[in-house]
Write a structure and sequence with these properties.
This protein is α/β, with parallel strands linked by helices. The protein has 2 domains: 169 residues, NAD(P)-binding Rossmann-like Domain (Rossmann fold), CATH 3.40.50.720; 190 residues, Dihydrodipicolinate Reductase, domain 2 (2-Layer Sandwich), CATH 3.30.360. The strands form 2 sheets. Strands 13-12-11-10-6-9-8-7-14 form a 9-stranded mixed beta sheet, with helices on one face. The longest helix is centred in the last third of the chain and has 20 residues.
Length: 392
């Protein structure tokens, strides 16, 4: 059913900051200084063994303003591109966070790996499957750590889902329904980089869809996707009357909108598992449904959330039989002591320092990207397609 070689790769526990060897500091740079970089830099600043030494952004002056906003001095930012930053050997970089817009994920990740630098790459992995393959080839050749920014899987509730499913007590998995979405949630408060094809490439499908896919695929061991029938639309994003836009920006945003705001798919996975998926930035519904995993000896229900279904919206429920009686067992929510973004950064740093596997390995997220790529291609062609994944 699942690729056994992938099991156990996401069981990392972040080293407590109190026990971190701060005498050995990792030199880190940030490529892309937009809003997601704020979360990265705050998490890095909380680590005692990190020195942030450089940053780059395509917009002149943006990197310098970014570090000034965070009160960090002495950071080199006079670079016109990621290549100039990486080519500056005086930085002696150990790692980079790639926080660019989607269509710029692959190029800096590949160039950093080719130059022997470890990479934390924000989600989605890339826009296309071919780009993901090229990044992985650079990773394989370099021998460096490449971790993808899927911090929700570090949530103890996500780990509980995996424990339940992989315990085998519920039997054989045969059907999964997952996804999620927002009633009105196209992310224009951050500008138009999320909605323009030239920068984003994919919309809700890659932005929050990748998380929802990872929630279930990671739980079942990331079986290989075989075929997909995909659908996508953008009825809301291209509507100048969309109430989710700032009134003065509605015409501008609608004209620039070039990605999906809704996507759905029917995916066949190795092992006879069917995946029914739907994701939305905007729809006339609070949620497209809870996540359910149907198994021959039981069923697991994961409540949806108001924003997207890449996390747990309430206590999970297991439907099963005990002594011939139908029962429902509730799984309480596990409260996290640490923020997921801090855990994402810490587990990446631990892997770099200790030479251990990436906390979110590309070998798994490749299948996630293959499904996203397949949905987009199938939607454009209007029929089911086979998913073909090149050799790395």
């Amino acid at each position: 059913m699942a690729d056994k070689s992938m099991e156990g790769l996401n069981t990392f526990t972040a080293q407590d900051s109190a026990t971190v060897d701060a005498s050995r500091k990792l030199r880190v740079a940030i490529i892309g200084c937009g809003w997601i970089a704020d979360a990265h830099i705050k998490a890095y600043l909380a680590q005692p063994d990190v020195e942030i030494v450089a940053g780059a952004d395509l917009i002149p002056g943006k990197a310098a303003a970014f570090f000034a906003k965070h009160g960090i001095e002495g950071v080199k930012t006079d670079y016109a591109s990621h290549k100039e930053l990486i080519d500056d050997k005086s930085l002696a970089l150990d790692a980079v966070s790639v926080c660019t817009y989607n269509r710029q994920h692959a190029a800096p990740a590949i160039y950093a790996l080719e130059n022997g630098i470890n990479v934390l790459l924000e989600k989605p992995f890339t826009v296309t499957l071919d780009e993901a393959v090229e990044v992985m080839r650079a990773e394989k050749k370099s021998g460096k750590v490449l971790s993808i920014g899927f911090q929700p899987r570090l949530d103890e509730n996500m780990k509980m889902i995996k424990k339940i499913v992989q315990s085998g007590e519920l039997g054989q998995i045969y059907y999964i329904q997952t996804g999620g979405g927002r009633r009105r949630g196209i992310p224009t408060p951050f500008g138009t980089s999320f909605i323009e094809d030239a920068t984003a490439g994919i919309g809700a499908l890659g932005d929050i869809g990748c998380y929802s896919l990872d929630m279930v695929l990671n739980a079942i061991g990331y079986p290989k996707p075989l075929t997909v029938t995909g659908y996508k639309s953008n009825f809301f994003g291209t509507d100048p009357n969309y109430c989710g836009y700032k009134a003065s920006k509605r015409a501008e945003y609608a004209s620039k909108f070039g990605v999906d705001d809704f996507a759905a798919a029917f995916v066949r996975l190795e092992g006879g598992i069917i995946l029914d998926f739907r994701i939305s930035w905007a729809m006339n519904m609070d949620t497209p449904g809870d996540t359910i995993i149907l198994v021959t000896q039981g069923g697991l229900l994961i409540p949806s959330t108001e924003c997207w279904n890449g996390t747990v919206g309430g206590p999970m429920k297991i439907y099963h039989e005990v002594c011939g009686q139908q029962v429902c067992t509730e799984i309480p929510i596990i409260n996290m002591k640490k923020g997921l973004f801090d855990l994402k950064i810490r587990t990446f740093l631990d892997a770099v320092k200790n030479g251990t596997p990436a906390p979110v390995p590309s070998s798994q997220i490749l299948y996630n990207q293959a499904i996203i790529d397949g949905i987009a291609k199938s939607a454009e062609l209007g029929h089911e397609i086979e998913i073909e994944i090149p050799e790395i």
